[in-house]
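**Sequence, structure tokens**
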Amino acid sequence: MAENAAVEIGDDRERGMLTAQADGKVAGTIAYFVMEPAPGALVAVHTVVRPEHEGKGIAGALVRKFYAIAAQEGVPVVPLCPYAAKWAQRHPDEAPAAPEELVREAERQLKDHPELF
């Protein structure tokens, strides 16, 4: 689906939350963390879109922005979130694959972030 042009995406690094807003309300989020030692990688854990905003391209816009932020910072993305992983497979030109050892380390570090489960 096409991306919703009225969506504004903001990054709250302290909370580990990328948020999409539509009409001034939260429409979707990506929960993430920064791998240690920082900046090891940005690790996407969950992508959620509120039911009333499904099918509008918000999840794709969030993941695209997440990869763009990582590219600007010069770090890889580890998409542990199933949606983000599928999106990355469909968009390899925008979502370079993370090295397998980085993925394993991200999975290990996720255990240290129970608030993201």
